[in-house]
TrEMBL record, chain A:
Belongs to the sodium:solute symporter (SSF) (TC 2.A.21) family. The chain crosses the membrane at residues 75-96, 116-133, 153-171, 183-201, 336-360, 372-392, 425-453, 465-486, 492-513, 520-541, 556-574. Residues 246-281 are annotated as: Disordered. It holds the Pfam family SSF. This is Sodium:solute symporter family protein. It is found in: Cell membrane. It comes from the Bacteria. It is a multi-pass membrane protein. One of its GO terms (molecular function) is symporter activity. It comes from Actinacidiphila rubida.
Automatic annotation (TrEMBL), chain B:
It is an enzyme of class 2 (transferase). The lineage of its organism: Bacteria, Bacillati, Actinomycetota, Actinomycetes, Kitasatosporales. One of its GO terms (cellular component) is membrane. This is histidine kinase. It catalyses: ATP + protein L-histidine = ADP + protein N-phospho-L-histidine. Residues 282-387 form the Histidine kinase/HSP90-like ATPase domain. It comes from the Bacteria. It comes from Actinacidiphila rubida. Its EC number is 2.7.13.3. Keywords: Kinase, Transferase, Two-component regulatory system.
Length: 607, 392
């Protein structure tokens, strides 16, 4: 990909973000139109803002990558991300809005009157935000690496610095406008290349997506590997090698001269200008079994060869790929995993720190409901597209299954399907969309978390807010720089799992059950959040594995959520004496009494 | 190798969580001699008992405080009695609880500490630690509001003394609670004063401006009158110390429309409002005095057209509002006098708003005024988005 175009796209996204954030506030001029303007953040714009903040790296890059590698089971992610809003609307949105709490710790304090619960909630908010920011920054690193060949940490640093800089300087004055803009940018960035992708698929004779065959190279293809890669060959094949394979050096060694993107994933199709400069390497016959290729090694595959898959990824036929719960791609216990993902995403959405505050932009409950319906529509439309990329990626960029970098499918596909300047422009557009995804989600999270941290640690001073911004974005940046990480969507799924096993019980029980006590809530938050967090740590330390233990740890929600609910209910029942009926009455009345009744204002009586 | 890392990671997470939980639940503890530690423990129990008592004396606060008071005195059982009813019983021997009011009667009637002998208290169970009691009345502002009854096997002189001291401490807390309540009442009274204070100048000016339209533009006159009616209705409403920023801005908008009828093109207004902060709860009528100040004192004396800019932006955990005019500005010393509440009645507005903001949110949330003669005026207000007990 052309680095200059990619960088220009990145710069444009950042500049537009700051411009909309600073100047977008000029909603109105003069008094007569002000009230209308401020009241009418229209449901559509509001829904766009929610979508803009919500569609993160996981949605933009991750879903396509997982669908490509592991088949239709992974549709559980987009389905869950979307349906989570429905659960939020049904169970939480309106009472929470009436409660007057702006953040989850606010809610904990308001409902339970306990500072200890508030502190635990603040810590959990920070943990969830860090888990959520980490894949954003990793995604940024991956994107910048794919586009320019910069080292992994560079993209993470660029996004982190841009976001904290803007947030700490008091930019992003009106988050709603910025996020709304970002949604449409993302939708355009993924939809326009998708149109060309479909056209290219048609002109290639509509190759079957769900046929009985495993992915094969359509043309003779040279794949440049990034880092050491272990892969499994299922059918013997003769390849040309330059670099290191199974410990033997071939050809001139890794070529890292200018113009060759070491961004690895850019496998060369017939249109690619790189293919001319790629001299043929040494022909080697690869037998069945596992092989190891060194960093920078180029492997040339003949047309029609079955694509070897990276270690840990099982080749699946098109039919198996499209068959639900078939365990395509080699994930164990698909049924359990799908239900666990669904549970985490359904119930986790309400516990994300940056989601709740968006509902405050709605002037009333009616607008809030309309907004939610529109959010569901917008998200549903958006999520069709990564799925398309995932499916077509198996046809046009099967080498990603070899390099293991399926997360870059959305970035790589446009230029593989469209020759010349058009392809480069489409790729730049996709890059812009990806960066919009990182920047919008990261800034929304950073601002929410910095708000919570500054309030609870620094007593809400303006300078405290700046420090809190650094505290919010610093730890994930360090982690993104030093770890390679899970697939983006899986990592986000873990953040959802922690949210679902801590804040979901707190919110649902807090709003719908009078019996919740502060001790019960505290125990539930610590147990649920702690168990899920332990599972996250273990998963990221161990890496992907097989068997029940791996399935339970990689998708912990199915057991941590019930445990958290049970502990919270049990703890509350055991500490029933701590309930204060009056306080519960007050809070419940406020949360459940419709605004119209509560706001009915007596007229001043004539004296 | 992998499993070692796994074990270490799990151990670290568990240890970290346990340490964090311990820190949260127990607070930090010092070290020292046994006497030091005993003193710390006593002070700690006292500090735990204080917050409930600061809510005044009721069954809930008494129940929560009684636990710590019993620990403080180290007695088997303790009762808090209110006006003719038992508020809380802490400790074993609950079967004595119904009689607690009877035990306390003598002390509450006389207003002096009273020792209740075993003949009255004992229940016949030899294992029961509740055998006798010392009852100390709780006298706040010369009025007996309740009694603290300390039960034990026998009443020693030391226990009587300790019970008396603890009761004094409880009385001090209850007096502070009373003080809090009167401060709240004072703020409410001030608010009522401000409400009555919709400026006479403004009423007069608005009505004359409307009168001037009655012949030439009856529709306009009618609309302005309705605006005026709505504005008075809002300003004179009786309930609630707080309102939402949206409502405040709507009222300010009405006010400005009326002023524009008078000033015409000389008054220009910009409102830049981030929609996220519209539902934030703010003290009732906290913006209008500031805007009125900008129009009357900033732009009124200025011969050329002037502009008032009102901004409200989202800033993390708080909302920042500013009212800026490019009028004649003020002498900073005059502003200081006004904010100190020493100004004349004519410009009470800013000082009053400042005082109410501080009373509700704390001293760091006072008004910040940037001004100089000839340089216009900018008044900055910060409001936390959420504060326990603050609600529109």
């Amino acid at each position: 990909m052309n680095p200059a175009l990619g960088l220009a796209a990145l710069a444009l996204v950042l500049a537009a973000t700051v411009a909309v954030g600073v100047y977008g506030l000029r909603l109105s001029r003069g008094t007569s139109d002000f009230y209308v303007a401020s009241r009418e953040v229209s449901p559509l714009w509001n829904a766009s803002a929610i979508g803009g903040e919500y569609l993160s790296a996981a949605s933009f890059l991750g879903v396509a990558g997982l669908v490509m590698a592991y088949g239709v089971d992974m549709l559980a992610y987009p389905v869950g991300y979307t349906a989570g809003y429905l659960v939020l609307l049904l169970l939480v949105a309106a009472p929470l809005r009436r409660s007057g709490a702006y953040t989850l710790p606010d809610f904990a304090e308001e409902r339970l009157g306990s500072v200890a619960v508030r502190r635990v909630a603040s810590v959990l908010v920070a943990v969830i935000a860090w888990l959520y920011l980490l894949p954003q920054l990793q995604g940024a690193g991956l994107t910048l690496q794919t586009v320019t060949g910069a080292p992994r940490w560079a993209g993470a640093v660029v996004v982190a610095v841009a976001v904290t800089g803007v947030a700490a300087a008091g930019g992003m004055r009106s988050v709603t406008l910025v996020q709304g803009f970002h949604f449409w940018l993302k939708l355009t960035a993924i939809a326009v290349p998708a149109v060309f992708l479909v056209l290219a698929w048609r002109s290639a004779g509509s190759p079957a997506l769900t046929g009985p065959d495993v992915p094969r190279f359509a043309h003779s293809t040279v794949v440049t590997l990034d880092g050491q890669v272990r892969f499994d060959v299922t059918a013997p094949v003769t390849v040309t090698v330059r670099g290191t394979l199974d410990g033997t050096a071939y050809g001139r060694g890794p070529d890292v001269g200018p113009g060759n993107s070491p961004g690895g994933a850019s496998g060369s199709g017939p249109h690619d200008p790189d293919s001319a400069s790629t001299g043929a390497g040494t022909a080697v016959r690869l037998g069945r079994g596992q092989h190891v290729a060194g960093d920078g090694t180029r492997l040339g595959f003949p047309a029609g060869a079955a694509v070897p898959h990276r270690d840990g990824l099982k080749p699946a036929t098109g039919a198996a790929w499209a068959d639900p719960l078939s365990g395509a791609g080699g994930r164990s216990h698909p049924l359990y995993a799908v239900y666990s993902i669904l549970l985490a995403t359904f119930l986790g959405t309400m516990g994300l720190p940056h989601v709740l505050v968006r509902f405050y932009t709605n002037p009333d409950g009616r607008a809030a409901r309309r907004t939610t319906v529109l959010v569901l529509v917008l998200l549903s439309v958006f999520y069709l597209l990564p799925t398309l990329y995932g499916a077509l990626g198996r046809v046009f960029a099967p080498q990603l299954l070899l390099t293991g970098r399926t997360d870059t499918a959305v970035l790589v596909l446009p230029q593989l399907t469209e020759a010349g300047a058009g392809g480069r422009l489409l790729a730049a557009l996709a890059t812009a969309g990806a960066f919009a995804a990182f920047v919008s989600t990261a800034s929304g999270l950073t601002v929410s978390v910095a708000g919570v941290l500054s309030q609870d640690l620094m007593h809400g001073s303006a300078r405290g807010f700046r420090w809190a911004t650094l505290l919010a974005a610093g730890p994930p940046l360090v982690m993104a720089a030093v770890t390679a990480g899970l697939p983006v969507a899986d990592a986000i799924g873990l953040a959802f799992a922690v949210a679902a096993s801590s804040f979901c019980p707190l919110l649902v029980l807090g709003i719908w059950w009078r019996g919740l006590t502060d001790t019960g809530a505290l125990l539930g938050l610590v147990t649920g959040g702690g168990l899920a967090a332990c599972a996250v740590v273990l998963t990221s330390v161990r890496g992907p594995g097989g068997g029940w233990s791996a399935a339970l740890l990689e998708q912990p929600a199915a057991w941590t959520v019930p445990v958290a609910f049970a502990v919270m209910v049990g703890g509350s029942l055991l500490t029933r004496h701590r309930l204060s009926e009056d306080a519960v009455d007050r809070v419940m009345l406020r949360m459940h009494l419709p605004e119209e009744v509560g706001a009915a204002e007596p007229l001043p009586q004539p004296r | 190798m992998g499993s070692v890392i796994t074990v270490v990671a799990v151990a670290l997470v568990v240890a970290g969580a346990a340490a964090g939980l311990f820190w949260l639940v127990r607070g930090r503890r010092g070290f020292g001699t046994p006497a030091d530690r005993a003193a710390f423990a006593t002070l700690h129990e006292a500090s735990l008992a204080a917050p409930p008592l600061r809510d005044g004396l009721n069954p809930d606060s008494a129940r929560r405080a009684a636990r710590h008071l019993r620990a403080l005195l180290g007695t088997p059982a303790l009762a808090v009695v209110g006006d003719g009813e038992l508020l809380a019983w802490e400790g074993p021997g609950r079967r004595h609880a119904p009689a607690a009011v009877e035990h306390a009667r003598e002390a509450m009637e006389s207003g002096r500490p009273w020792v209740v002998p075993p003949e009255i208290v004992e229940c016949g169970d030899l294992d029961c630690p509740v055998r006798s009691a010392v009852v100390v009345p709780l006298v706040v502002d010369g009025l007996v509001v309740g009694a603290l009854s300390v039960y034990g096997r026998q009443v020693s002189a030391g226990l009587v003394r300790a019970a008396g001291e603890v009761a004094h401490w409880v009385i001090a807390q209850l007096e502070l609670a009373e003080l809090d309540r009167s401060r709240t009442r004072m703020v409410e009274a001030e608010l009522r004063a401000l409400r009555a204070q919709i400026s006479p100048h403004f009423v007069y000016n608005s009505l004359t401006a409307i009168a001037s339209f009655v012949r030439t533009d009856p529709d306009q006159a009618r609309e302005l009158l309705l605006e005026f009616a709505e504005l008075t209705r809002y300003s004179l409403r009786r309930h609630g110390q707080f309102s939402t920023l949206a409502e405040e801005l709507r009222s300010v908008d009405r006010y400005l429309r009326l002023e524009r009828a008078r000033f015409g093109a000389r008054l220009q207004v910009d409102l830049l409002i981030a929609p996220e902060v519209l539902p934030v709860a703010v003290p009732f009528l906290c913006l209008q005095p500031i805007v009125e100040n900008a129009v009357r004192h900033g732009l009124g004396p200025k011969p050329t057209p002037g502009r008032v800019t009102i901004r409200a932006v989202d800033a993390g955990a708080e909302c920042r509002i500013s009212v800026e005019d490019d009028g004649v500005g003020m002498d900073p010393e005059e502003v200081r006098v006004q904010l100190a509440g020493e100004g004349d009645g004519d410009s009470l507005g800013l000082g009053n708003v400042d005082e109410r903001l501080r009373a509700v949110f704390g001293d760091e949330y006072g008004l910040v005024v940037e001004t100089a003669p000839g340089a216009g005026t900018k008044v900055n207000v910060r409001v936390p988005k959420y504060r326990n007990g603050v609600r529109a």
